[in-house]
Design goal:
- The chain is an alpha/beta fold.
- It has ten helices and seven strands.
- Helix 1 runs parallel beside helix 3, helix 4 packs across helix 5 and helix 6 runs antiparallel to helix 7.
- It is globular.
- 38% of the residues are buried.
């Protein structure tokens, strides 16, 4: 996906000047390691590869750590690449009925993960819903965060004008269509529809995505209902962004 390649490009620029500040020399990357850790009342699966400055990648809705596969080897060549599964995501059994699905829960999980795994401080990279989680972590525990990259965070409070109103109306219709499919007992169909809206590539475009992306999205179709019905965190506003202590980069896609 072009927007993720753009993320890799800009993030590499941001971090290029930070290597000397951390006094860590990049080393040759080893192979990826798949690990598990129990934190904050849940088991978290994650993949880690490389050495040096730690970069923690947080996926968005109907996703898991596989969302970042296209970026893993490029970043692991110079940094310590870490990508986790948020609670309820991936293929593991749930610790409950997903009643605790929320940004607040996921942010607390990420904070516990950074501390328990001994990775911090880290650079946080979040996409979509994951970007909002990364923001919560950085706002509440800036001591754990060197810097923050938010790729397309949900920020309806920051957009205005006729095009924004049209986009928000489209969002509402897409979500209601996905809810209708969930009520009809078709979580896979709802996940396909949700992914097509997120990618903004039109109906039927899900079949054109990579096999890895399709498997990942369908494996996480069960998370769509708790995601849509979750307890919301405060909206992303200029006031919240103004309280950020770590340096932050926000990236938006041109066509999404």
């Amino acid at each position: 996906m072009t927007r993720l390649l753009r993320l890799a490009f800009f993030f590499a620029i941001v971090l290029a000047g930070c290597q000397s500040l951390q006094d860590r020399e990049p080393e040759q990357s080893t192979g990826p390691e798949f690990k598990h850790i129990h934190v904050h009342g849940t088991d978290i699966s994650y993949i880690v590869q490389g050495r040096g400055i730690p970069l923690l990648f947080i996926h968005g809705a109907i996703s898991d750590y596989r969302f970042w596969e296209a970026q893993r080897s490029a970043f692991a060549d110079r940094y310590r690449f870490i990508a986790l599964n948020l609670r309820y995501h991936g293929t593991a059994a749930w610790p409950d009925n997903a009643e605790n699905y929320s940004e607040a829960t996921h942010a607390a999980d990420v904070i516990s993960f950074i501390r328990a795994a001994g990775f911090g401080p880290v650079y946080l990279v979040g996409s979509s819903y994951g970007a909002n989680i990364a923001l919560d972590v950085a706002l509440n525990h800036p001591d754990l965060v060197f810097g923050l990259v938010m790729e397309e965070p949900a920020a309806p409070a920051l957009i205005s004008g006729p095009l924004a109103k049209k986009a928000l109306n489209e969002i509402g219709r897409a979500i209601e269509n996905a809810r209708a499919m969930l009520r009809g007992g078709d979580p896979a169909g709802a996940a396909r529809l949700f992914a097509e809206w997120t990618l903004n590539m039109g109906r039927g475009s899900f079949a054109n995505q990579s096999e890895t992306f399709q498997r990942m999205a369908l494996a996480n179709a069960r998370t769509l209902h708790p995601y849509l019905e979750r307890k919301r965190s405060p909206p992303l506003t200029c006031e919240r962004l103004g309280r950020l202590k770590p340096a932050a980069l926000i990236i938006n896609g041109a066509n999404t």
